[in-house]
């Protein structure tokens, strides 16, 4: 559905029951009068955004062959350790949702994460696209990208009016939670009702604040997780020191927010300058979203604060010249050489590049640098105490991203983050205490509530944004270009599954979306890739085979094998 809106409605305080849009595009006359500014607009010149029916998308998805098996993963998975956090299902909050009487108690009920982010249409464009997505959590991690659905799309030079942008999504989300979707799984005799429950608000700080109608991180009380007031240091964003330092600056010990405190602030804030309540500026549509805790259901994200934030900023400090913590210019080639000599597993999609081009690194490269190979590459090139300081950050990031996280891991990560933050302030000064560094400590709470950080990361949504951008070829009417592309993709994906399509057409259309690698053969769940070489076994190989009671004359040798989602390679 296309909703038109008045350009003058980009104000911050909006009562959530106020009709903010001009109405549906098809139902409006050629000239429209805005009841807020009383200005008459020509229909074809008015700005608009688009909403997509989540119910229709989910109904179509549930009726696709194989969906029932895909969404049963959370019920049949096998854990490595019963007491560890290994996926979103192990978080305390998710476990509450699955308790008897909870919205996810039924095996046919599902949860979803929410994401939105602004992405520029081009390097030279001031126009941004803001897609609003949901992503189901109950399938295997490797398949969750196939369970992403778009709820709305806003394209403009200004940020969305979030109370307007989120309204239709909240209404539909409440319907999916209260009434669900009726469908018949394969093999079932009767229809079942699947309800869909909101889980995490997975957004960066730039989007989190307006989604909750709170102040952004550049101002006082800009943290959506706690009441840290922030410290003004001249012009620019406020800083977030760990400790007060009177008389230069002082502040009260921050306390964690709660659902009640945020809601109370939303109802008592005033639509005037400085009318916020501890950073809460007014009502948010998300306060209407059923079963959504305004504190617990927001998570910190890892891409922006951890990797593109603190890891990048700290590395930039190390690349400064003639500082006690700097990498000396004559040691930089040593670091780069070690980077090039690093042999990375195939699970790392990006190969390491020189620090000299670190300004071009992606979030994935910053993650790999921090967690996987920065410490051995920096060994002996900077003073020991500065390497130990960096190691605190690397260790905390590693612990919070493990495939199996114990409670002791969480406690250790929390100690590392606190020590890292305090030492960072000592080494680099309060003027470098940015919000990204402050919010790291809240990541531990997110993991306790919702499992490892990779389970509620913005990384997967970044690739979805790329697909939206790739749908836009002209600055004229970008929204309709995205709509057309989405319809074409949906058609290509569903035609091969239709029963009234000829086999020839089915195969032709199926080939358009077939991007899977050719698998030569599968043995005991291992997929052997590429062309194998048939040869005689060596004596050592024959002995190993005999121990397994296997007799053979020839064996086929492959250089690549895919097992449990990981590709292994032999040296050529």
> Helical region count?
19
Average pLDDT works out at 87
End-to-end distance, in Å? 55 Å
Indicate the proportion of strand residues: 5-15%
Helical fraction equals 25-40%
Overall geometry comes to globular
Provide the gyration radius in Å: 26 Å
Main beta sheet: strand number and arrangement?
8 strands, mixed
Classification by helices and strands: alpha+beta
User: How many discrete structural domains?
Assistant: 5
Number of strands: 18
Low-pLDDT segments, ≥5 res = 8-20
Organism: Frankliniella fusca
Protein name: Insulin-like growth factor-binding protein complex acid labile subunit
Quick overview:
It comes from Frankliniella fusca. This protein is an alpha+beta fold and 572 residues long.
Keywords:
572 residues; alpha+beta; 4-stranded antiparallel beta sheet; 18 strands
Task: Please explain how this structure is put together.
The chain has about 575 residues and is an alpha+beta fold. The protein has five domains: about 1-50, no CATH class; about 55-205 and about 285-300, no CATH class; about 215-285, no CATH class; about 305-455, no CATH class; about 520-570, no CATH class. The protein has helices spanning about 55-60, 65-70, 75, 90-100, 160-165, 165-180, 205-210, 260-270, 305-320, 330-340, 365-380, 385-400, 405-430, 435-440, 445-450, 460-470, 480-495, 505-510, 540-545, and strands spanning about 1-5, 25, 30-35, 40, 45-50, 110-115, 120, 130-135, 150-155, 180-185, 190-195, 195-200, 520-525, 525-530, 535, 555, 560-565, 565-570. The strands form five sheets. Strands 1, 2, 5, 6, 7, 8, 9 and 12 form an eight-stranded mixed sheet that branches. It has a four-stranded antiparallel sheet with strand order 13-14-17-18, with no helix packed on it. β17 (about 560-565) and β18 form a beta hairpin. α9 packs across α11, α10 crosses α11 and α11 packs across α12. It comes from Frankliniella fusca. This is Insulin-like growth factor-binding protein complex acid labile subunit.
């Amino acid at each position: 559905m296309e909703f038109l809106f008045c350009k003058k409605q980009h104000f911050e305080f909006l009562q959530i029951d106020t009709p903010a849009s001009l109405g549906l595009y098809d139902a409006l006359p050629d000239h429209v009068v805005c009841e807020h500014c009383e200005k008459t607009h020509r229909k074809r010149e008015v700005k608009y955004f688009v909403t997509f029916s989540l119910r229709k998308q989910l109904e179509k998805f549930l009726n696709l062959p194989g969906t029932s098996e895909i969404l049963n993963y959370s019920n049949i998975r096998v854990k490595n350790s019963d007491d560890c956090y290994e996926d979103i299902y192990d978080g305390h909050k998710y476990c509450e949702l699955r308790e008897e009487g909870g919205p996810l108690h039924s095996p046919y009920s599902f949860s979803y994460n929410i994401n939105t982010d602004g992405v520029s249409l081009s390097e030279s464009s001031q126009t941004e696209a803001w897609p609003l997505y949901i992503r189901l959590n109950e399938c295997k991690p490797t398949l969750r990208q196939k369970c992403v659905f778009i709820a709305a799309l806003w394209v403009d030079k200004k940020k969305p009016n979030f109370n307007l942008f989120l309204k239709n999504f909240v209404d539909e989300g409440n319907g999916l939670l209260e009434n669900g979707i009726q469908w018949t799984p394969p093999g079932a005799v009767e229809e079942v009702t699947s309800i869909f429950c909101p889980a995490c608000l997975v957004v960066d700080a730039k989007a989190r604040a307006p989604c909750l109608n709170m102040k952004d991180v550049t101002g006082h009380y800009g943290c959506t997780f706690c009441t840290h007031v922030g410290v003004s240091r001249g012009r620019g964003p406020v800083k977030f020191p760990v400790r007060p330092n009177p008389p230069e600056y002082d502040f009260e010990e921050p306390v964690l927010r709660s659902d009640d405190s945020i809601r109370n602030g939303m109802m008592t804030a005033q639509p005037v300058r400085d009318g916020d309540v501890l950073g809460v500026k007014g009502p948010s549509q998300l306060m209407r979203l059923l079963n959504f805790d305004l504190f617990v259901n927001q998570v910190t994200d890892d891409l922006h604060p951890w990797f593109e934030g603190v890891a990048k900023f700290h590395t930039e400090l190390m690349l400064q010249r003639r500082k006690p913590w700097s990498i000396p210019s004559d040691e930089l080639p040593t670091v780069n050489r070690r980077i090039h000599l690093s042999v990375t597993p195939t699970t790392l999609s990006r190969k390491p590049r020189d620090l000299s081009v670190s300004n071009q690194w992606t979030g994935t490269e910053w993650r790999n640098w921090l967690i996987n190979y920065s410490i051995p590459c920096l060994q002996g090139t900077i003073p020991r105490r500065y390497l130990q300081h960096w190691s605190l950050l690397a260790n905390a990031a590693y612990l919070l991203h493990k495939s199996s996280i114990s409670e002791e891991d969480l406690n250790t990560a929390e100690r590392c983050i606190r020590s890292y933050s305090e030492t960072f302030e000592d080494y680099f000064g309060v003027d470098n205490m940015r919000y990204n560094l402050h919010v790291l400590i809240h990541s531990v709470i997110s993991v306790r509530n919702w499992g490892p950080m990779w389970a509620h990361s913005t990384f997967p949504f970044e690739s979805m944004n790329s697909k939206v951008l790739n749908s836009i070829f002209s600055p004229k009417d970008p929204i309709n270009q995205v709509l057309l592309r989405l319809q074409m993709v949906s058609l290509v994906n569903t035609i091969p599954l239709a029963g009234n399509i000829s086999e020839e057409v089915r195969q032709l259309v199926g080939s358009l979306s077939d991007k899977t690698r050719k698998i030569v053969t599968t043995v005991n769940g291992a997929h052997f890739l590429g062309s194998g070489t048939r040869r005689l076994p060596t004596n050592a190989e024959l002995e190993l085979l005999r121990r397994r009671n296997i007799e053979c004359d020839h064996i086929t040798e492959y250089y690549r094998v895919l097992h449990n989602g990981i590709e292994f390679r032999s040296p050529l």
